[in-house]
Specification:
Helix content is 12%, strand content 46%. The protein is mainly beta and 167 residues long. It comes from Aptenodytes patagonicus (King penguin).
């Protein structure tokens, strides 16, 4: 459900998942969907949601400081309909907002892998993952961990397994 335990396992997942997500999007049965949205500060809870076929990804957050930031959500379904992917990120890399909470939820599939980052790759910089204790992963959500999350978020990645019938 979560990234492999141990540093080498985490590094392996960190290297493989972005490539897998790109493959999922490139080989999607339905056209992958990318949508821009504003992450707005002010302390209110906001949500942004996208659906593709039977699958939905919803990003819910509350943030403080600064001004609106443009973010993107990308969703896709693999050609064989076995995986649904959802990525939420700030294309410019680092967010300057202070996130008080976040949650990404998938409907129609169960999370196989998820990762959250304090900084997204941009301008020659690499993704900087959150510490494992800062967020939690369930079958359908990735969310901040109360009291452990350090208020920095720039990217979320989810790969979820879709239900399918065995022959």
């Amino acid at each position: 459900m979560a990234a492999s335990s141990g540093r080498s396992g985490r590094r392996l997942w960190a290297a493989l998942v972005p490539a897998a997500l790109l493959c999922l999007a490139a080989r999607a049965a339905e056209e992958p969907s990318t949508a821009d949205f504003d992450v707005r500060p002010g302390g209110e809870v906001h949500s942004f949601s996208r659906s593709l076929g039977d699958y939905t990804c919803t990003f819910t957050y509350s943030a403080q400081g600064g001004t609106n930031e443009q973010w993107q959500m990308n969703i896709g379904v693999s050609e064989d309909n076995l995986f649904f992917s959802c990525s939420v990120w700030r294309p410019q890399g680092k967010s300057y907002l202070f996130f008080t909470q976040f949650k990404a939820e998938v409907k129609g599939a169960k999370i196989e892998y998820a990762m959250a980052y304090s900084q997204a790759a941009a301008g020659g910089q690499s993704d900087v993952p959150l510490k494992q204790e800062e967020f939690e992963i369930t079958e359908t959500t990735v969310s901040h961990r109360e009291g452990k999350f350090r208020f920095e978020l720039s990217k979320l990645m989810i790969v979820a397994k879709t239900p399918h019938d065995e022959l």
